[in-house]
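Why does residue order matter? Because the sequence determines the fold. Keep that principle in mind as you read this record.
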Amino acid sequence: MGALGGLIALVVGTWLRHRLGSPKSKIIAIGLVILALSPFLYGLGISVYRLEIQGPRQRAQAREDGKRIVEALHKYERQNGRYPNSLEDLAPELLDSVPTLPNGEAFQYDVGEESFSLVFNVGWMGCHYDNRLRVVTCSD
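Structure:
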């Protein structure tokens, strides 16, 4: 049931509860209110599952993929004297394929003449690798 259907069920259930005083109408009203709230409760359960169960695995996978990309970028620079213009230049010689984040988005790569940065976000975690500092900082 979509949000509009849930809203209609909530309004009708509330109206029935106040309008009709019989026990049957109260049961119907409570059922409609529960039906109206079910998409919200279902969505809340899925969100909690994603944050608490899948979240740590996804963040760990993103960090591991980020490390592999950084290593490949340094190796590319040693072999070619410069950093690649895009991450796609790393495949298939240095990486079988360019990893993507668990949500399907690409790692954000920015290259300068002598440095690069790699930025990626998974859930509320954001990581940044700055080649000049040679350190990965994550907020999680």
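The chain has two helices and four strands.
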